Amino acid sequence: MPADPALMELCELADAIARKRVSSREATLACLERIEAWQPHLNAFVAIEPEEALGLAAAADARLAKGEPSGPLDGVPFAHKDMFYARGKVSTCGSLIRRDWVASEDSTALARLTRAGALRLGTLHMAEFAYGPTGHNAHLGHARNPWNGAHVTGGSSSGSGAAVAARLTPAALGSDTGGSIRMPANFCGVTGLKTTVGRVSRFGAMPLSHSLDTIGPLARSAADCALVLQLIAGPDPADPTTAHIPVPDYRAACERPVRGMRLGVPERFYTEGLHAETERVFGQALDLFRAEGVEIVPLALPDQARLSAAGQILLAVEAAAFHRQWLKERPQDYGAQVRARLENGLAVPAVTYLEALRWRGLALAEHIRAVSGVDAFIAPVSATPSPTIAESDVGGAPGAEAVIQAVTRFMRPVNYLGLPALALPAGFTGAGLPVGVQIVGRPFEEDTILALGAGFQRASDHHKALPPLPGGTA
């Protein structure tokens, strides 16, 4: 067991606190010390709350001393993307418009973790209104990749990816509407779970696109993601879009053997136009699965480019509808890129939007038929490793949307269909940048992709790699 509690994985840390091998105060102090050292280099946090966190840690230690833990995460310190509302707390949503906005209600996902005993370290950086895939933010400054500060973290859950990778928090909530969990997980070298639409309540979380938004964890391992999902999944009366479908035992799923499972490799789209190092890491991931007894088979999927285009229409229109009043009254308070993307959404004809919305059910049915012979399919998360902040800082220039599409093109089909997907660290480029893969399942089959992810991580150690603190220490 590492001497530093901040270096423990979530499951390990929760168990150590429950068994009183580590106190909540020790774990919280360890995270706060790493935050102090890393924050100037990463810009991962929006707000840090050390005094409150230590007070919560003291209360947790008192409960544990009496043998009265509040839940399986009692005393475990967390930080989350600054779009999950906590009553009485500022939630900036990464924006100037909400810089001082105080929430009057609690996010259901956040409240469920709090009831399980999790405590709050502060709030994490994000793209403005969660509408950006790189980690750039004109108001908060750009988040930076722990593996190389000149490169992007991925977005919009930029702080969540960076903070988990640098061991500032053992896990963090993020949102995924067009890749916003999987992209930071991929570029920062952590594990990220995009859930099925309807699996996790969205109540009290800032909306971006009501038909695409999903909430899920970023953590160091599939097992850690399973623990968080176990606690936040399930129906919520405050969110009528949540599904009344039984919640499986996700933690048990991570113990399943993967030998004999079938994993599809798309013949087109996801395997086209890959950077050489992305292609190498993807091939190595397939070899590892084969070595673990997973059957790798070619898979013919429906036209993914068409799905991507339809998903972009839904996102553009729904985001623009939410922001319409602010765009009219406070256009100057948006960053150039976000304002340009929102204004593009206002120009989409209603008929085009309705056609994209109406086609989704038929497209999902076609997809499910196509994947009927496999347990899940595997693909790269991005065609290229993390770009630099400078080369992807295109603001609201005419070519901005093309840059965004190039980074996110393997994301949007999954979002449009509402599927679950697990991003896993799978290797590194020669320059030391993480590269990941995503395992995509059928609706509400998070247990299957978590089983595959856990099997991959039992046979590899990419998820255990630790970025060095600038200056030479970890």
UniProtKB/TrEMBL annotation:
Family annotation (PROSITE patterns): AMIDASES (PS00571)
Domain Amidase: 26-450
A Pfam family it matches: Amidase
Domain of life assignment: Bacteria
Its job: Hydrolyzes indole-3-acetamide (IAM) into indole-3-acetic acid (IAA).
Name under which the protein is recorded: Indoleacetamide hydrolase
